[in-house]
Amino acid sequence: MKIEHIAAYVKDLEGAKNFFEKYFGAKSNELYHNTEKNFKSYFLSFGNGARLEIMNKPELEASRSLNRVGLIHLAFSVGSKEKVVELTEKLKSDGFKIMSEPRTTGDGYFESCVLGFENIQIEITI
User: Fold this and answer.
1) CA-CA-CA-CA torsion for 59, 70, 7, 82, nearest 10 degrees?
2) Rounded CA gap, 16 and 118, in Å?
């Protein structure tokens, strides 16, 4: 068994797609638009592993508390410590908030944590 995809609602669908393409190498399918439900989505693929579905509909609520029950972050493996540092610095220089600089955590991960597009919390790890 494996996770096939994870979905997240976003306010700016095109902006979210562009963010994941630019920083994480995502490949997107064509826009899906259900006109009856006024729902739009893209599936983003990252080479292997689970896909990310980003979705939008007009009546979304804008709650993004990091201290809540439910899914809280996405984690991307970039392959090396150097790439963790490099991508963290790129995101920082592009104005994204760094929650934690690259470091080895107590449970042995080398990672950083960034608030990405629309404050989606993203861990960048080896």
Assistant:
1) 130
2) 8
